[in-house]
């Protein structure tokens, strides 16, 4: 099993990122379950706006798309900005949309059989709304979602603490991250052994 995490922080490397930290914690739980993991910080790449698989010379999405197609599990990690997923997260969903009409050799939508999961961080409440937005986008393009397919942390309203500034991971977040990993891997294995029917 292989998992790809697309981290949708607005900050390119090497700037610190709470989204990257939570993504790394998800990857650590997946590693314990025997899943190989890869993390890509999308802001480090020139992903063009659009809904095509390739937006022309210099577009980095075709390379990232290949990684998505090779993965059994896709984790999208995003901060909350103005109550919404980051603009980079939205761009990733828009680029994934290009594959919603593609099919595999058996005529199934190309992304069927792949499992999605979400990690959300922010300083205001809104993790449920943001995960719902990303869940719907992933499901629309063909990803399946396990129960508990999101882990998140939000700080107290109108405060400035970041997830990466905490002295330790809150137990509730660690438990939720573990559940996300276990359920997501379970579903991915089931779908690998028993693909969706062709019609």
Which keywords apply here?
6-stranded mixed sheet; Rossmann fold; alpha/beta
Describe the 3D structure:
- The protein is an alpha/beta fold.
- It has five helices and six strands, in the order βαβαββαβαβα.
- It has a single domain (2-193), classed as Flavodoxin domain (Rossmann fold, 3-Layer(aba) Sandwich), CATH 3.40.50.
- Strands 1, 2, 3, 4, 5 and 6 form a six-stranded mixed beta sheet that branches.
- Strand 1 (2-7), helix 1 and strand 2 form a beta-alpha-beta unit.
- Helix 1 (18-32) packs across helix 5 and helix 3 (87-96) packs parallel to helix 4 (127-141).
- The longest helix is centred in the C-terminal third of the chain and has 23 residues, at 171-193.
- The mean pLDDT is 95.
Write the layout of secondary structure elements.
Blueprint: E1 2-7, H1 18-32, E2 36-41, H2 61-70, E3 73-81, E4 84-85, H3 87-96, E5 115-122, H4 127-141, E6 144-154, H5 171-193
Helix pairs in contact: 1-5, 3-4
